[in-house]
Amino acid sequence: MKWQSLLASFAIGLIPAGAVHAAQADHVTASHAWIRLLPAKLPAAGYVTLQNAGSSAATLVSAHSAVYASVMLHESDVESGGMNGMHAVNQLAISATGKAMLAPAGYHLMLEQPDRVLKPGDKVEITLDFADRSHLPVQFAVRPANTADPN
Amino acid sequence: MKLSHLARLAALSMLIVASSWLSACHQSESTPWQLTDISGHMPDLSFRLTDDQGKTVTAADYRGKVALLYFGYTHCPDVCPLTLAQLHVVLQKLGPLADGVRILFVSVDPTRDTPAVLHDYVAAFDPRAVGLTGSPSDIEALTKRYRAAFTREPGKADGSYDVSHSSGIYVFDNTGKARLLATPTDPQDKLVHDLHLLLSPGHAP
């Protein structure tokens, strides 16, 4: 038992050490983070602008939150006058010194199964996970459904 | 969708014909509309559905109002809410004239979109928005009437599923005649301009 817990503390201790060396998240800053709140517990969308100050690309691979049981990276397909739908996206690269926008009618975080009923003005922390296993916690502002221009 | 191309082509060819006529006599006076004119290309508004209060309604209940018909569903977190939020802004820009407008949000996902779900949903966007649902066959008939295809994507393991649908906004005048087609990519001001025209007494034919 003692050995197991000792090994476990080693393992836990090693994760942050690894993150320090390979930290895509350290070069990425998030702004304009908001959630379009829908009534009841309908799936909502999260939007954020990501700026990469690093000299190499940072790749967003997933996101998670204590508030939402499911957070997925999605992209809407919108054709002028045509069909629109959505598909899941495995990863989103932010080029060196480049920018990626998760914005309405494009890339977004699909947020499902909130653990409580949210209201406009709330803040929700969503952690962005990068390919090198580094993480960026971001505070998202909860805004009303009919927000047209959030910023 | 092919419709908008056809409609645009039709509108464009009419415009070319009209302008070649007009250049002979009067200047200007082409189409007054900034959106795609679908007058005569789409049937009048007609349906029998259930509104978000649980009441059976038909198109006749909205005569006297300019109707903005949009197909969507509540489990659509990105494009549908964006479109409804933009329509809300358009109505705000119209001021008191917006009382003459109804947004008819028709669910293409009637299994999940009960009147109660729709009621909370549309109310979150605009007081002039009405949620409509019905039997799958009634919904399908309406989408076919306006050639607004939708498909249900294969279900996922957890029983959820996605729906692809046409993103056009069909504009009907206060007599239920199909007049204009807007897409979410059209600038809001075009819709504001054309609705203003449609809502003004003695508007252009």
Automatic annotation (TrEMBL), chain A:
Q: Which domain of life is it from?
A: Bacteria
- Short name of one Pfam family: PCuAC
Q: Which residues form the signal peptide?
A: 1-22
Question: Which InterPro entries does the record associate with it?
Answer: LpqE-like, Lxx211020-like, PCuAC_sf
> Which Gene3D superfamilies does the entry mention?
PCu(A)C copper chaperone (2.60.40.1890)
Entry annotated with the keyword Signal = yes
Keyword field: Signal
Name recorded for this polypeptide:
Copper chaperone PCu(A)C
Q: Which organism is it from?
A: Dyella mobilis
UniProtKB/TrEMBL annotation, chain B:
The positions making up the signal sequence are: 1-24
DNA-binding is among the record's keywords? no
Which Pfam families does UniProt cross-reference here?
Answer: SCO1-SenC
InterPro entries per UniProt: SCO1/SenC (IPR003782), Thioredoxin-like_sf (IPR036249), Thioredoxin_domain (IPR013766)
| CDD domains per the UniProt record, alphabetical | SCO
Domain Thioredoxin residue range list: 36-200
For the keyword Transport, the answer is: no
- Which PROSITE patterns does the record associate with it? PROKAR_LIPOPROTEIN (PS51257), THIOREDOXIN_2 (PS51352)
Q: Which UniProt keywords apply?
A: Copper, Signal
Q: Which domain of life is it from?
A: Bacteria
PANTHER family reported in the protein's UniProt record: ELECTRON TRANSPORT PROTIN SCO1/SENC FAMILY MEMBER (PTHR12151), LINALOOL DEHYDRATASE_ISOMERASE DOMAIN-CONTAINING PROTEIN (PTHR12151:SF25)
Give the family from UniProt. Answer: Belongs to the SCO1/2 family.
What is the recorded name of this protein? SCO family protein
Q: What is the lineage of its organism?
A: Bacteria, Pseudomonadati, Pseudomonadota, Gammaproteobacteria, Lysobacterales
